[in-house]
């Protein structure tokens, strides 16, 4: 074996150079995660790990060092998107009026749907194998929608007879007929119409 280890540390005077600081490793992982999310979102079919590494401007070994398998990368992207949706509901309410926060959250939901399309085969296999708790994800997303609806009702911005399940079903319908990739304008129009339907009747 040569004097360069698998993680790139070189032996100097019998001692290995210290590994990059933990913060640097975390930043590198987050950058790879962001690139993978973007690639999955734009893909018509599942991209290869090599294609993701090339898009990130790193070698395939670097990608595998952070995500040893395709499944680990898909899981990380999926969980990151779910976290953005669940935490994003309260974050948006801290920045925008409830109705505007809900409309912006719908865009985040569309991004999540688009990202899933680029990793669907692996994702479905992981759900079937019990590696991803799909039911828990659904509960978390419905809770996020409920938080937004409740804030909107309290402010008088949203109807009080709409459930989180209603909104989720409508969003799935919108992004089925108008996927984000190539149909952004149509999707935005349909979401705006949906928001009109969620406002209180005069």
TrEMBL record:
Keyword Transcription regulation: yes
Keyword Transcription regulation found: yes
Ranges of the DNA-binding region feature: 48-67
Domain HTH tetR-type, residue spans: 26-85
Protein name per the record: TetR/AcrR family transcriptional regulator
Pfam families referenced in this protein's UniProt entry, alphabetically: TetR_C_43, TetR_N
Compositionally biased residues, Basic and acidic residues: 16-26
Region (Disordered): 1-26
Compositional bias segments (type: Polar residues): 1-10
Record keywords: DNA-binding, Transcription, Transcription regulation
């Amino acid at each position: 074996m040569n004097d360069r280890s698998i993680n790139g540390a070189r032996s100097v005077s019998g001692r290995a150079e210290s590994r990059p600081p933990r913060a640097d490793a975390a930043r590198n992982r987050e950058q790879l995660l962001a690139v993978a999310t973007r690639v999955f979102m734009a893909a018509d079919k599942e991209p290869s790990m090599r294609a993701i590494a090339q898009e990130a401007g790193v070698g395939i070994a670097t990608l595998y060092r952070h995500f040893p398998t395709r499944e680990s990368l898909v899981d990380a992207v999926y969980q990151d998107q779910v976290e953005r949706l669940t935490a994003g509901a309260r974050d948006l309410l801290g920045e925008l009026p409830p109705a505007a926060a809900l409309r912006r959250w719908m865009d985040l939901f569309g991004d999540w749907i688009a990202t899933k399309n680029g990793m669907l085969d692996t994702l479905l296999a992981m759900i079937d194998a019990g590696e991803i708790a799909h039911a828990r994800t659904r509960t978390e997303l419905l809770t996020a929608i409920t938080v937004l609806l409740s804030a909107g009702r309290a402010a008088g911005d949203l109807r009080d007879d709409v459930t989180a399940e209603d909104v989720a079903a409508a969003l799935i319908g919108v992004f089925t007929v108008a996927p984000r990739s190539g149909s952004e304008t149509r999707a935005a129009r349909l979401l705006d119409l949906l928001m009109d339907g969620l406002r209180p009747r005069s």
